[in-house]
Amino acid sequence: MKTVSVILPACEEEGNILSAAESLSAVLKATDTDYELLFVDDGSRDKTWERIREASAADRRVRGIRFSRNFGKEAAMFAGLEAARGDCCVVMDCDGQHPASVLPEMLRLWEQGYEVVEGVKETRGAESAAHRAAAGIFYRWISRATGQDMAGASDFRLLDRKVVDALNRLPERNVFFRALSGWMGFRRTTVTYPVGERTSGSSKWSTRALIRYAVTNIASFTSAPLHIVTVLGLLMLLVAVVFGVIALVQKLAGVALGGFTTVILLLLFIGSILMVSLGIIGYYIARIYEEIKGRPRYIVAEELGPEKTE
Ligand code: UDP
Ligand code: MG
Questions:
Q1: Does 243 lie in the same domain as 200?
Q2: Which ligand is the nearest neighbour of the Cα of 9?
Q3: In which domain, by residue range, is 163 found?
C-alpha cells in the first residue's frame, strides 16, 4: 500500500492540533492509502507540543518535530519534507483553513500520474481590503518573476516522492516554497478549495511579517530590482546629456547664470536614486552573505513518533 505523509507546520496552534489530527485521520482512513501525519512545531510557546505528544501517543501514525525556536513556516515545511517517509507528501496548514476533504481528490489525481497537485484558493476567505490589495500587487510581481500564475496559489499541495527528493536536493536556504515547486516543473494539475475559517487561535502574520515575506520571496526569485537600477542609471545618463548640452550652450552664449533650483533638484534626485540603488544592491549582497554562511534552515530540538524501519 502506498503511503502519504501529511506535513502540518504549527506555530502556536494548541487549539487545532487534535482536531486536525482527528479530521485528517477520518478522511484518510476512508481512502486506500496509508498515511502519516507529521506535525512540525515551529517554536510555539503555548501547549502545541504537548498536544502533538498526546496525538502521537494515541496514534502511532502521528509524528512530531519540534524546532528549537521559531524558524518560520517555510523552514517548517522543508523540515517536514525532509523527514517525510511517504510515497507522496501533502503540505497543509493545521488551522483548518485547508480542508481535509480535498485530500481524496488530490490522491486520486496523484494516482492518475500527476506529480504535483496544487490547491488553488476558490475564495480568499475573510481579509481586509488593504490586505487583499497588497496581496494582489505581490502576486502580480511574483507571477511575472516566476512566469506562472500565482494568484490564488497557496502552500496547500501534494508532491510526489520524486518532487520531494528534488526539492530536498536544492542547496539554497532562502526559498519560496510555492513558487519553487512550480519552477521545478513535473506533471502538474490543480484542485480548487474553499478557504475555511480558522478553527481556533489567530493568524500569526503581522503586516510587517507579510511585507518581509513578500520582499524576501521576490528577491529570492528574481534579480529584476537590480536591473531596475541599471535602467534608472541609463535614464539619468540621458537626462545628464540633455542638461549637459543646455549648460554648454548657455555657457558659450554667455548667459550661464541662475539655475540654482535646477542644481538643487538634480542633486536631490541623483542622490536619492543613488541611495535607493545602493540599498537594492546591498540587499542582494546581504542575501548572498546569508546563503554563503550555509547555516541550517532550522534546528530540531526533539522528535516524536516511530523510528524509521527498513
Ligand atoms: N506557521 C508556522 N510558523 C510561523 C507562522 C505560521 O509554522 O512562523 C503555520 C501555522 O501554524 C499555520 C500555517 O503556518 O499552520 C499558516 O499560518 P496562518 O494561519 O497564521 O497564516 P494564514 O492562514 O493567515 O496564511
Ligand atoms: Mg491560517
A1: no
A2: 1
A3: 3-221+297-304
Q: Is 11 in the pocket of ligand 1 (CB under 6 A)?
A: yes
Ligand 1 centre distance from Cα of residue 277 (Å): 33
Non-local CB neighbours of 61 within 8 Å, separated by 6+ positions: 25, 35, 36, 37
Instruction: Give DSSP secondary structure letters for 245-302.
Output: HHHHHHHHHT-----HHHHHHHHHHHHHHHHHHHHHHHHHHHHHHHHHHT--S--EEE
Domain count, the chain: 2
Summarised one tens digit per residue, pLDDT across range 225-256 is 888 888 888 888 888 888 888 888 888 887 77
Same domain for 176 and 232?
no
Query: Which residue's C-alpha comes closest to atom 2 of ligand 1?
Result: 73
Question: For 101-123, what is each residue's pLDDT tens digit?
Answer: 899 999 999 999 999 998 888 77
pTM of the model: 0.77
Which atom, in ligand 1's list, is nearest to the CA of 8? 15
Q: 72 CB under 6 A from ligand 1?
A: yes
Residues 285 and 202 occupy one common structural domain: no
Ligand 1 closest atom vs CA 72: 8
